[in-house]
Amino acid sequence: MKRPIYESQEDLTHETKMKTFLETKWNCTLNKLPYKYSLDWFALREREPMAFVEFKHRENLSLTAWPRYMMSLDKWIKARQLTKELQIPFIMVITFTEGTYYGVFAHNGVHDLRFMFGGRVDRNDNQDLEPMVLLPLNKFIKLEKL
To answer: What are the structural domains, with CATH classification, of the chain?
Structure first.
């Protein structure tokens, strides 16, 4: 059975605004990836691969609420496979109440990760509960406005 896609028009608006901001900030082009890639963008600079990028808008969540950010292990594995193949980093961008932060995860790096079983429980979708990777937020850097 096909899973529902929970991406709303508001999510797409936040994504479009962030895409424009990051392209200017990082001097790159962010190409929207097909759904099968599980990530938002493929970043190119002067037509050369720069990074795979995922964006989450969580402005109702404080950066200090948790020491780590929970992400689907399946998404993490796909990101690692792609970055290893191209030897470029995976960049996770998250907007919190305090601003927007990003973490860079090199294709061959050691990242102080933790793992658990969990996920969202607010949508009554048992497919939202799965193995998760916990990314260390103390490694994230604040993105300053232009």
So the answer is: 9-142 (3.40.1350.10)
